[in-house]
Amino acid sequence: MDSVIQRNFDVAVIGAGPAGIAAAVAGAESGARVALLDDNPAPGGQIWRGGSKTSYHSQAKHWLDRLSNSSVSVLSSTSVFYARNGALEAGSDDSLWQILYGKLILATGARELFLPFPGWTLPNVVGAGGLQAIVKSGLPINGKRVVLAGTGPLLLAVAAYLSEHGANVLCICEQASFAQLRAFALTLAAFPGKLVEAAQLRFRSRRAPYIMNAWPVAAFGKDRLQSVQISDNQRCREIECDYLACGFHLVPNLELARALDCRVTNGFVEVNEFQETSQPGIYCAGEPTGIGGLELSIVEGQIGGYAAAGNFNSSKQLLATCARYKKVVNAMKRAFALRPELATLAKPDTLLCRCEDISFEDARKHASWRAAKLHSRCGMGPCQGRVCGAAAEFLFGWTIDSSRPPIFPVRCSSLAATSPPASPAQRHGGSQ
Amino acid sequence: MSETLTVRVNGTPVNVPAGSTVAVAVLLSTGACRTSVSGQPRAPLCGMGTCFECRVEINGRPHRRSCQVICEADMEIKAHG
Fold this sequence. Notes:
The complex is a heterodimer of chains A (432) and B (81). Chain A has helices spanning 18-29, 58-68, 128-136, 153-164, 178-188, 192-204, 255-259, 294-308, 312-316, 319-325, 327-335, 360-364, 369-376, 388-396, 412-418, 424-428, and strands at residues 4-14, 34-37, 73-75, 79-84, 87-91, 96-106, 110-112, 125-126, 145-151, 168-174, 210-212, 215-221, 225-231, 236-240, 243-248, 250-252, 264-265, 268-269, 282-284, 351-353, 358-359. In chain A, 33% of the residues lie in helices and 24% in strands. Chain A contains 16 helices and 21 strands. The radius of gyration of chain A is 21 Å and the shape is globular. In chain A, strands 1, 2, 3, 4, 5, 6 and 19 form a seven-stranded mixed sheet that branches. In chain A, strands 8-15-9-10-11 form a five-stranded parallel sheet, covered by helices on one side. Chain B is mainly beta. Chain B has one domain: Roll (Ubiquitin-like (UB roll)). Chain B is built from one helix and seven strands, in the order ββαβββββ. In chain B, strands 2-1-7-5-6 form a five-stranded mixed sheet. A two-stranded antiparallel sheet of chain B has the order 3-4. In chain B, a hairpin with a 2-residue loop joins strand 1 and strand 2 (12-17). The longest helix of chain B is centred in the N-terminal third of the chain and has 6 residues, at 22-27. The chains are: A alpha/beta (432), B mainly beta (81). The interface between A and B is large, with 39 and 37 residues.
């Protein structure tokens, strides 16, 4: 297991969601030798998880076919745990890889934002996209009672998907107000396809009431979820259910961009019109540059893929389309801005860090994310703060700006075998 | 996903649709993957490999993210929920 396979590529793409697939295909079709590395068992990312069979997006089949007909070397179930200029260290179940690259494209996608409330650690309290992913991965949901809560267009998509797979979706609780959602719908009017898609999703989930200004207050159960308390801004009611699928929109996966010192501004990776970051030769596409959805991710991926392969003419043809879809980013940010009540749901003893079981109170008393990590172990577990760090940014206004190798937990034998050079902290003589 | 296969979770056989992840096998049996450092049962949260709540032991190897591993026939899974 612990010998390292070294391969050389013109372009390495990290993340095989829509942006990464589009980038890899664009690069390969321009004549570059391209590697596509992905942590998941198969290409598609979250939105196309399970391939075209489980996806309603006609584009899923188009892009997955185009990928399999291309010369791209796809490395699935492969986590990049160390990245530096010119080389990546990555591990799969049975192989260790060192990928030498000329250009790098980060298409690391986004994860759901989870916020703590009493009971949120109970089994069967799961992400909204999380439950959809698990159902796409084989979990029978027929007849199960599901409460969907949180914010963002994903709630509707998940409600539609689960309903059609036999779930009894009891309600969709959207924390945003009617005014926010109306403004969003007006922006979407410039994108008739998106408006039609939203209407179709609502039609497919029509049996579930869609409640605005509503959010989860607490989850109850002994060893697993039994009921959830929902507030609609006037009163609370308790609903018995099998699953609470709950996500508060998306946060970008910035760990690799930060590890590579790409400039991050207001929580997103800064890129030029060709998707190149502040680090020459390192590109970024999709949700890490701004949460803008599927179409924007695909077009950004193509622009970055063509540019990384030196095919700027093809990139340029897509710039106008890209600029148009970028309007969705700000509209989405406004529409699904979180209401302040959501920062007050956790009780002092509600856990914030689920890996190390650090309570809200024990984290809050520190002055910064760094201090909380140092003194309480908050964010120091296997998820490396991916869950509680994003929550702490919203709850306490902390800045989460460090990312240190290994990017993903890795076995000591793998680390030893790849023996990457000194970490940035060691170089700077720092400790954390 | 019409075919099924059998894995064992804590020694008990569990049938899952072919192509299912180990997380599905655990949810269909014990319902919890691991015990937290303060003794609470935990199960998958993110479903996509970032939260590490779904860690189990698979074929003797600990700390595998069950949501990212596809079931194979006769897999031995240990969940400590």
